[in-house]
Specification:
The complex is a heterodimer of chains A (106) and B (120). Helices cover 0% and strands 51% of the residues of chain A. Chain A has 106 residues and is an all-beta fold. In chain A, strands 2, 4, 5, 6, 9, 10 and 11 form a seven-stranded mixed β-sheet that branches. In chain A, strands 1-3-8-7 form a four-stranded antiparallel β-sheet, with no helix packed on it. In chain A, a hairpin with a 3-residue loop joins strand 5 and strand 6 (53-54). Chain A starts with a strand and ends with a strand. With 120 residues, chain B is mostly beta strands. Classes of the chains: A mainly beta (106), B mainly beta (120). The interface between A and B is medium-sized, with 22 and 22 residues.
Chain lengths: 106, 120
């Protein structure tokens, strides 16, 4: 089973600043990686699939990059509504999620 | 609008069985893979199982393999999860999720979840 490790566990960012979230796979997942945002009381929201393709309705401040075992989600200018927990998920071999990064508004 | 409504969650004793259902609407059900994902209290998301559009490809997390069985009825727009030999560590909210494509890849829509509690 491919293990996904996210860092940091918690990220405190001021509005307008850049947020960088990392995701590492225990073995290569090629570009088969997605990112989700989850807010309390809400279902997870797909942000990115295929490493860098934004899902429908996702603003361009969200971008994804990487390949193989190292991936990054960047929020270029954090907005107040961007707080929540972010998960990466590989689909190269079945599916596995990372443990999540909590983004707090500083 | 995509709607996914889970049902069947309950309080059950360890070793017992439970069957979850997911009623889907608002999209062409038989064109997409479907999944079950769970979240235990205070924990992150865990993929449980997925099934391709026609049931030809099925996968399970190692933690449930041999105990859980996923199935779908495309005529009824429904997804199921048969859970046997339940353990305390299976306690979680279980979510039905729609894939973005026919096979097991990314998840575009989620239900609100149904709670399974395994306790004596």
């Amino acid at each position: 089973e491919i293990v996904m490790t996210q860092s940091p566990a918690t990220l405190s960012v001021s509005p307008g600043e850049r947020a960088t979230l990392s995701c590492r796979a225990s073995e290569s997942v090629s570009s088969n990686l997605a990112w989700y945002q989850r807010k309390p009381g809400q279902a997870p929201r797909l942000l990115i699939f295929a490493t860098s393709t934004r899902a429908t309705g996702i603003p361009p401040r969200f971008s994804g990059s990487g390949s193989g075992t190292e991936f990054t989600l960047t929020i270029s200018s954090l907005q107040s509504e961007d707080f929540g927990v972010y998960y990466c998920q590989q689909y190269h071999t079945w599916l596995t999620f990372g443990g999540g990064t909590k983004v707090e508004i500083k | 609008e995509v709607q996914l409504v889970e049902s069947g969650g309950d309080l059950v004793q360890p070793g017992r069985s439970l069957r979850l259902s997911c009623a889907a609407s608002g999209f062409t059900f038989d064109a997409y893979a479907m999944h079950w994902v769970r979240q235990a209290p205070g924990k992150g998301l865990e993929w449980v199982s997925g099934i391709s559009w026609n049931g030809g490809k099925i996968g399970y997390a190692d933690s449930v393999k041999g105990r859980f069985t996923i199935s779908r009825d495309n005529a009824k727009n429904s997804l199921y999860l048969q859970m046997n030999s339940l353990r305390a560590e299976d306690t979680a909210f279980y979510y039905c999720a729609k894939d973005g494509v026919r096979f097991l890849e990314w998840l575009t829509d989620w239900g609100q979840g149904t709670l399974v509690t395994v306790s004596s």
